[in-house]
Amino acid sequence: MALARTNPWAALPTLQNRVNWLFDDMFPEISAGDDIGLMDWRPVVDTYEKDNAIVVNAELPGVKKEDISIDVKNNVLTISGERKDEENIHRDDYYRSERFYGRFQRSFTLPDNMDADKVDATYKDGMLEVKIPKTEDSARKKIEVK
Q: Domain of 87: which CATH number?
């Protein structure tokens, strides 16, 4: 008798499709794109440390620079704004709408050693980059053992 190898992960896309169909049948107003408050748009974000600073990269396609707000208060960085819906297309004219519109907000707790007065933000091609430098006294100091 020969053993057949199976890949348990191969069925995962099929399972995902079945769950999607289940929700489409149960909540057709969600799959049709109507906003009933069950889904919020949360831009995807990468955070990492580079050159003695914390860097936050946020994907904000379709958001105008003037619609973005960045605040730092009590060691919490908050990025908020709004992506506005297409004004010249009526809801009844859509066949399918998968993009999210409306207000968004993402908040991140910063370490205590960050210099909130020197935050730098740039926005280009739908990508927001926020750099928060560390304070000068937070650099590691080598201590000689005697």
A: 2.60.40.790
